[in-house]
Amino acid sequence: LSIASHELRTPLTPLHLKLELLAREIGDRVAPEHQERLHAHVQGMRRQVRRMGELINGMLDLSRIDSGLLPLEANQFSLAEVVREVVARHQEEAVRAGCEVSLELGSEGVGRWDRIRVEQVITNLLTNALKYGAGHPVLLRLTEDDEQVTLEVVDEGIGIEADQVPRLFQRFARAVSERNYGGLGLGLYITRRIVENHGGTVRVTSEPGRGSTFRISLPKGFLPEGRS
Ligand code: ADP
Known about the structure:
By secondary structure, this protein is α+β, with helices and mostly antiparallel strands. The protein contains 7 helices and 8 strands. The strands form 2 sheets. A 5-stranded mixed sheet has the order 2-4-5-7-6. Strands 3-1-8 form a 3-stranded antiparallel sheet. Strand 4 and strand 5 form a beta hairpin. Adenosine-5'-diphosphate binds at residues 124, 128-129, 132-133, 155, 157-160, 168, 173-176, 183-189, 212.
């Protein structure tokens, strides 16, 4: 899996560069009346390249996690700040999904975690909410007590059947048809493993047809400062 994902990732960098070159040439050489249409094609291709990159990174993470090679680099930061960043980065995707995303950040939620991995967890939960809750509002709510910070991602989408819930956090587990929703079924598995490696928990409550709430709790000082 590790070799396959490295090999699959190799052509993506030149592909991405060629697309940027193409966009520039369209701007320089193509008649103005055709530019908008061609730029839209390039934009679509950029999205697909990004998507492919994400799928491959999921496989790479899986191979790292399962071989116990997912080092964490812990530093002090505010979870609320990361939530705001991740949401800002997904604004375009939210508009495309028809979701209004709102934030209820009651506090800054400062703790010691691996920022990149925590960003990845929030990204996974938010992109799932946009995917399975398309056309409905999404809410991210942050609360904290002395020990831990809790983030809830609430959607009003398709929800999950009760008997499927226990499987969802296992690898390659999916509760939707491939025809309607693409995906490898790795996001929640990776999310759970990252959260558990931080000494935290991830839970879901859901009602089919009404929506789902994913809740992660991260203890503030579980990891020692630095790499572990
Ligand atoms: P993927 O989205 O690639 O299938 P995930 O591991 O992120 O993989 O999710 C596993 C499964 O959990 C999904 O296939 C879907 O059935 C279900 N799921 C995850 N998030 C949600 C959500 N917000 N609402 C409904 N179902 C969800």
